Amino acid sequence: MDLAYCRVSTTAQDLARQIDAMHAAAVAEEHIYVDKRTGANMDREGLTALLAFARPGDRINVLTLDRLGRNMRETLNLVHDLTERGIFLRTLGDKLTVDTSDPGPGTDMAIALLAMFAQMERIYMLERAAGARAAKQARGLPTGRPVKLNATTRAGAAQRIKDGAIPEQVAADLGISRSTLYRELRKHREGTIANQCEKGS
Predict the structure, then answer these.
(1) Residue 99 belongs to some domain of the structure
(2) Which of 4, 97, 152, 186 could serve as 61's disulfide partner, Cβ 3.0–4.6 Å?
(3) Catalytic residue among 9, 101, 177, 201
(4) Can you give the CATH number for the domain in which 63 is found?
């Protein structure tokens, strides 16, 4: 059976291109597992569900190997574990083709190189971010994360949830994570309480 895994790093990013590639590869919609989480670690709901479902003889399709993860050791360990379980892995969009149903030195080398490139890119990304923060500090500019929602948007999100909306859907509509939504809702409650106290004094 062909299965698929698609991942983007944040809730604001779009999975459509990856999912379209899986449809083109004839993977059934119900067998496509997705995550909107960083690839820096392997603790992801969609990936966990996929690994629990997969059986010997199944094949997991990803667009590129870095969708599995950007930590070289954990990615290689995952590929090894899949091989031990008799589960195959295929990439659809990498320049170096990976298909573990056709094992050999070339496949092993492609996996190792792609995993190394993914980790190097993550290291460079972190270095660029650190450089940007340092440049802002040198100019006296703020370096923290920008405010996700303003007071009006927080109030609207709070009202939607009060009216019965699912928090995960509200977060997705706003392009933020569920944990960020909860932090913003807490700010809204604290602001509401503060305003009531001021009016009462």
Answers:
(1) yes
(2) 4
(3) 9
(4) 3.40.50.1390
Q: Which residues form the domain of 29?
A: 2-119
Choose among 42, 45, 92, 94: nearest CA to 71: 42
Look at the pTM and tell me if it is higher than 0.85. Answer: no
What is the residue whose two structure tokens read 């496509």?
Answer: 32
42 CB-near residues (< 8 Å, 6+ apart): 69, 71, 74, 78
**pLDDT tens digits for 31-62?**
999 998 877 778 889 999 999 999 999 999 99
Domain-embedded: residue 124:
no
Chain centre distance of CA 177: 11
Residue 138 lies in a domain: no
Q: Active site includes 101? A: no
